[in-house]
Amino acid sequence: MQTPAVQPQYNSAVTKSNALIEANYKLSTIEQKIILYIISQIRKDDADFKMYKLPIQEFSELLGYRGSPKYTELREITKNLMRKVLEIREGQKLKQLSWVSYVEYDEHSGYVSLAFDPRLKPYLLQLKREFTTYRLKNVMELKSSYSIRMYELLKRWQYMWEVVIRLDDLRMMVGAGDKYSEYHNFKKRVLNPAKKEISEKTDIMFTYEEIREKRKVAAIRFQIREKVVEPVVVALEEKKEAQADDRYLQFLAVMQAYDRYITEQQFTKIAVLAQKAFGGNWMDELIQTARRIMQRNDIREPIAFLIYFLNEKVQRIQAGIDPNEVTIHSPGGARVIRREIVPDWLRGYEEQLAAQSAKSKEVDEDIEQMRRELEERLKKYKD
């Protein structure tokens, strides 16, 4: 196994399949942070797991130790971590897996290297759909293991703004198990502390409502909202890159809700058009427009149509024509100004664009040519 170089910065992303997000397991706060730290070292194009390195000094500081690392304590933590089991339910199957299969200490280099269990590959490598991504920095300051798990679950459903989770399922997913069997204890020890800590230290906040069945609380309805967080002072370019990446991930979550996928390069082109079409509030407008298009049964290639739709708005703005005459309404809307149906020859365009955008930057001109040809064909089709 190769051992990638480590850049111990908490601005990197953690990406996990939704099945892994919703898995049942119990890890301590420090064990969760170790796992999430090494997950953040996985690159989206990695075909296999590697040995992932954690600086021993940083490992020691995560535990609150100062001065020289205490190797005895560190070794006990990784030994316990290797014995921890997680359960993933897939249909009628219940899979039991370990997180870590191998640990190696190198006191001379100052690193501890860890290897994931190979059976975790489908849940961590080359994920194209049904996954959740968030910034590592949002969990590294959380003190409670319940807060970390609650944060992950809420990020998984953030794009829907709310989610209902059965109380028994919630207990298992946050690692409470049979603890706090009385709801008032669970509320006091898990829900309310997580609500406070997540709101203070992460990029989201939430409220919740109790759903009762026969007078007993049976489920919780969470309302999730994004919170404006001032980032740690970083270089301007780094800040811009992080914001662009976060917007891509936010838009990707919307696409995945409708079983669609979009590349970063596709999103960049769409984002440029959306800024011209919608102005300052372009991201919210783009998400709402995309949802309306996805909900339309008469649009077969929604991403291709979204590009066409934004292009038409931009062209109207540039020509001094009211762009609001071009709009998309959800099914059942009271008024539909336009009811465009994408023609059959557009089938496959989306796949072509995704394949092109996965190649090197040299294909940018080809993609732009495809876009221009698409506009011309749609213009003729509309005429």
From TrEMBL:
Keywords: Coiled coil
Pfam families hit by this protein: Rep3_C, Rep3_N
SUPFAM superfamilies to which the protein is assigned, alphabetical: Winged helix' DNA-binding domain
Residues of the Initiator Rep protein WH1 domain: 14-155
Coiled-coil intervals, chain numbering: 346-380
Family according to the record: Belongs to the initiator RepB protein family.
Protein name stated in the entry: Replication initiation protein
Organism: Geobacillus jurassicus
